[in-house]
Structure formats: structure tokens, C-alpha cells
Design a protein that fits this description.
single chain; about 90 residues; mainly alpha
Length: about 90
């Protein structure tokens, strides 16, 4: 009789631990997904800025050196955009 009670209490405790671990894992996944979606959005905004920057005549550009440095890094970020979409699709 005591064996059944012990097994039931152990099973209940193991189930609680498993449920808590699953909840923690889901919360962490949601946190990571939010981070990557924000990063994807920033990349999209940066690429739009780079396109707009390139559409303006050079003599009308403000902060040319600063923006061109950002434009160079946008290309590498855009390359990862497809990877991020593949992960969270």
C-alpha cells in the first residue's frame, strides 16, 4: 500500500517538474523569437534607409560618411534576414 502512495507522489512531483520546465522553455523561446523579430525589423529599416540614401544626389547628402558606414553593414544584415525568417516561419 505504501508503495502505491509513494509512486503516486513521485509521479506527481515529476509531472510538476516537467510542466515547469516546459513552461520555462516556452517562455525562453518566446523571448528569443521577440529578439530576432526586432532584429529583423531593424534590418529592414536600415535597408530602407540605405536605399533612400542611395536615391539622393551626393551633393544633397548629409552625414555621408556616417550613413555609408551603416549602409555597408546593412548588406550583411540583409543576408541573415532569410535565415531568421526560416527559423521563425
Amino acid at each position: 500500500m505504501h508503495y502505491r502512495t509513494n509512486i503516486q507522489s513521485i509521479t506527481a512531483a515529476a509531472l510538476e517538474i516537467s510542466m515547469a520546465a516546459a513552461e520555462d522553455q516556452a517562455a525562453e523561446r518566446q523571448k528569443q523569437q521577440k529578439y530576432w523579430l526586432q532584429r529583423l525589423e531593424r534590418t529592414h529599416i536600415d535597408s530602407e534607409r540605405a536605399v533612400a540614401y542611395n536615391a539622393v544626389e551626393p551633393e544633397n547628402r548629409l552625414w555621408q560618411e556616417h550613413l555609408s558606414e551603416n549602409g555597408r553593414s546593412v548588406g550583411s544584415r540583409i543576408a541573415t534576414e532569410d535565415t531568421i525568417r526560416a527559423i521563425f516561419a
